Amino acid sequence: MKNILIIGAGLCGSLLALRLAQHGFQITLVEKRPDLRKTTLDAGRSINLALSDRGLRGLRLAGIEEAVRELLIPMTGRMIHEKSGNTFLSPYSGRKDEFINSVSRPGLNKLLLNEAEKMPNVTTVFNQTCKKVIFETPLATFEDSKTGAETTYSADVIFATDGAGSVVRANMIHDKSFLLNISHQWLGHGYKELEIPPSENGGYREYKNALHIWPRGEDMLIALPNLNGSFTVTLFLPYKNSDYCFESLTTREKVQEYFKNEFPDVLKLIPNLSEEFFKNPVGSMGTVKCDPWHRFGKVLLMGDAAHAMVPFYGQGMNASFEDVAVFDEILSRYKDDLMKGKENWQKIFYEYEEVRKKDADAICDLAVDNFDEMKAHTGMELFQKKRKLETAFEAEFPQDYYSKYSLVTFNETLPYSEAKRLGRAQDKAILGLLHEGELHDTLKLKEKLTLVKKRTEAILKQTDAPDYLKTT
Ligand SMILES: Cc1cc2nc3c(=O)[nH]c(=O)nc-3n(C[C@H](O)[C@H](O)[C@H](O)COP(=O)(O)OP(=O)(O)OC[C@H]3O[C@@H](n4cnc5c(N)ncnc54)[C@H](O)[C@@H]3O)c2cc1C
Predict the structure, then answer these.
(1) What are phi and psi of 308, to 5 degrees?
(2) Top mutation candidate among 14, 15, 16, 32 for ligand 1, by most atoms within 8 Å of CB
(3) How far is the CA of 445 from the centre of ligand 1 (A)?
C-alpha cells in the first residue's frame, strides 16, 4: 500500500481521505485545529454553507450522500427583502427538482471525519500545524499546538488541503527551485456573521426553505437556515470609503442606526445585534489562482489551497468536493499500474491539473460575477424580469433552457468553464433583449426563447472567434 499524507482535515481533506482509503491507500490525515467533534467551533467561520449538485457528486462517490442528506435543509430560491419590508421569492430554477441545500459546516465536517475514521487504513491526528514541506522527498514537519514539539512525517505523496491560506502553497512560493505562478485578489468587502435565533416555540422566524437576501447595492445581508430553527446571517460590507463600512461602524449607536436605515426588519430579529456585532470577527475574502498545483509528482494542492474563491456562488466547497471526484476518475484509470510500479503519481497529477485548472479558474471568475448579482442586481427591476423569464423558460421547456445559475449549480456533468462560457453569453443576450424592449408581451414564450437562443449564438460566435475576426 502507498502511504499518503493529507494536510488539513477540513471539508476537502476529510472527503479525500475517505475516498483514497476506499481505494486501499494508507492515509494519515493531519489537522492543525483540535478535533471539532470534541470542541466547539470558533466564531466567525461560515457556520453554514450551500451544498448543491457538484458537491453531492463527490459525496455520492464516497457512498455517503444519503447520510449527508439527513443534515440538509432545501432552499428553493432567493427570498429578496426590499427596504420597504416587501419580500418575494425568486426560485433558483423553473425545474422543481433543482434547489440548493443549507448544511452546517461543522456538522458536515464531523460526518466526513467519522466516515473516514471508520476505515482501518485512516489515521487522524489533530493539533498539529504544518510548518514546512520538503517537496523532493516528500517530508512535512508539524508543530504540536499544545507542546510546541515538532514531528516530521514522510509519505509517498502529500495532498495539501490546508485551505485558502495554505502553508504548503506558501512553501512552494518560497522554494526558489520552483516557479509558482500565483495571483491573490482581495475583495474590498469583509464579512461578519450574526444569528437570528429560533422563535420561542423553536420554529423559524423567517421562511425556512430559502436563502434570504437583503440587497442594498454595495452591501448586503444573507441568511441561511439551520436545523435548530435559527438562521446564520452574514453581513457583507466594504472595509472603508463608504457611509456605512466596517471602519465607520465603531459604536453601538452607529450599528443600530445602520440596521434601522438599511435592514429595519432584521433589527427586530437579532436581539443581541450590537453584542454580536462587536464580538464576532470580520472575515476577509479573496480569489487565489496558482499553477502548477503539484511538485515533483510528490505534492498536490487541492480544494481552497489550489483555488480559493469569494463565496458568492456558494461553490467553494462544492468545487472542492468536485476536485475529489475529478481526481478519482483519473486515479481509477491509472491505479492498477500505479500499484504495480508501472505508472507514477506525476502523470496523474499532470493530467488532473490539465483537466481541472480551467474549470477552477472559471468558477473563481463566476463567483466574482455573482457578488454584483447578489448585492445589487437582485434588487433591480431588469434583473427580476430576466429571472422571471428564465424561470418560465425552465418550467415550460425544461430540456431547452438552463440559466447560468442552473448551468453552474445543477449541471454536475457540465464543466464550470463551459457553464461560464454559455452562461455569460446567455445573460448578455437576455439582458440586452430586455433592455431593447425586444421581448414584448405580445410574443409567445417559445418565440421569446427563440430570440434569446439566436442572440446567445451570435454572442458565442463573436466571443469564440479569433481576435482578428472580432468586430467591435
Ligand atoms: C463566508 C463564507 C461562506 C461560504 N459559503 C459557501 C457555500 O455556501 N457553499 C460552498 O460550496 N462554499 C462556501 N464557502 C467556501 C468553502 O468554505 C470552502 O471552499 C471550503 O471550506 C474549502 O474546503 P477546504 O477543505 O479546501 O478548506 P477548509 O475547509 O478551509 O479546510 C482547511 C483545513 O486545513 C486546516 N489547516 C490549515 N492550515 C493548516 C496547517 N498549516 N496544518 C494543518 N492543517 C491546516 C484548517 O484548520 C482546516 O481544517 C464559503 C466560504 C466563506 C468564507
Answers:
(1) -80, 140
(2) 32
(3) 42
- Residue 374: pLDDT band by 50, 70, 90 thresholds? confident
- pTM beyond 0.90: the answer is yes
> What is the CA 198 to chain-centroid distance, rounded?
26
Q: Residues 237-255: what's their mean pLDDT?
A: 96
Nearest to 364 by CA among 240, 210, 187, 235: 187
Instruction: Decide: 324 in ligand 1 pocket, CB within 6 A.
Output: no
What residues are paired with 137 via a beta bridge? none
Closest CA to 277 of 287, 292, 263, 298: 263
Going by C-alpha positions, the residue among 59, 43, 22, 37 that lies closest to residue 126 is: 37
Phi-psi domain of 401 (left: phi exceeds 0; alpha: psi -120 through 50; beta: other): beta
Alpha carbon distance 230, 232 (integer Å): 7
C-alpha 79 to ligand 1 mean position (Å): 26
Q: Which atom of ligand 1 is nearest to the CA of 318?
A: 11
Count of CA atoms in the C-beta half-sphere (13 A) of 325:
20
> Is residue 320 in contact with ligand 1, taking CB distance under 6 Å?
yes
CB of residue 33 inside a 6 A radius of ligand 1? yes
* Ligand 1, atom 35: closest residue by C-alpha: 8
Assigned C-alpha cell, 154: 514522510
d(CA 70, ligand 1 centre) in Å: 22
pLDDT digits (tens, 9 = 90+) for 83-101: 999 999 999 999 999 999 9
How close is the Cα of 9 to the center of ligand 1, in Å?
10
Phi, psi of 379 (to 5 degrees): -90, 0
Q: Which residue among 6, 7, 11 is best mutated to probe the pocket of ligand 1, counting the most ligand atoms within 8 A of its Cβ?
A: 11
Helix (H) or strand (E) holding 54: helix 53-61
313 to each of 70, 309, 317, 463, how far by Cα in Å? 23, 9, 10, 23
Q: 164 CA to middle of ligand 1, Å?
A: 7
Evaluate the CA torsion angle 375, 194, 189, 237 in order and state its sign.
positive
